[in-house]
Design brief:
- There is one protein chain.
- By secondary structure, the protein is mainly alpha-helical.
- The protein has one domain: Arc Repressor Mutant, subunit A, CATH 1.10.10.10.
- Helices cover 65% and strands 5% of the residues.
- The chain is built from 7 helices and 2 strands; from the N terminus they run ααααββααα.
- The chain has helices at 6-33, 40-49, 56-63, 67-79, 101-122, 127-146, 155-159, and strands at residues 83-86, 96-99.
- Strands 1-2 form a two-stranded antiparallel sheet.
- The protein starts with 5 loop residues before the first helix and ends in a 5-residue tail after the last helix.
């Protein structure tokens, strides 16, 4: 069994912190979005669709989410009147989502409150630290985009979970 190098351990600690931060950010996003009738997931979908009508697959690719999770959010957004589906001239099977006026209003509400929240948090972290964190996360994401988790040696043997 291969053990972690010092840099591998540091990367693993970073991954754990990102998972923890993700949980806290999603909870904060849910709290910010709740008064507008949204969740973090629904807010994310509206944020993509705000830039123009989009298919479920386009939203999923943009946000790095599964189509199934975006489909669930999109269907609930449509049922609640935040988005509407329309025919897609480029693909009859993949309908386009567009924001309704209710969706625009909800998104504007959340964005106003998110700006206040982000400004409060940002005042407590030096800009250089944030810039470094952004750059590091972008580099890591780029590496992960091209190198999916794989078992570099003997994939079939190592991929099986021990069953003792």
């Amino acid at each position: 069994m291969e053990s972690l190098t010092a840099s591998g351990l540091m990367f693993s600690e970073l991954v754990i912190e990102v998972f923890r931060a993700n949980g806290v950010l999603l909870a904060a996003g849910d709290e910010l979005a709740r008064p507008a009738g949204l969740t973090s997931a629904r807010w994310q979908v509206l944020g993509v669709v705000e830039h123009g009508p989009s298919t479920i697959a386009q939203v999923a690719r943009t946000m790095g989410l599964t189509r199934q999770s975006v489909r669930q959010s999109a269907e609930s957004l449509a049922a609640d009147g935040f988005v509407a589906f329309e025919d897609n001239p480029g693909d009859r099977r993949a309908r386009l989502m567009r924001l309704t006026s209710k969706g625009h209003e909800a998104l504007a509400y959340v964005e106003r409150h998110q700006a206040e929240w982000a400004n409060r948090i940002a005042e407590r972290v030096p800009p250089g630290e944030m810039e470094g964190a952004i750059e590091a996360l972008r580099r890591i994401r780029a590496l992960l985009d091209v190198q999916a988790p794989s078992h570099s040696r003997n994939q079939e043997k190592e991929a099986a979970w021990p069953t003792r």
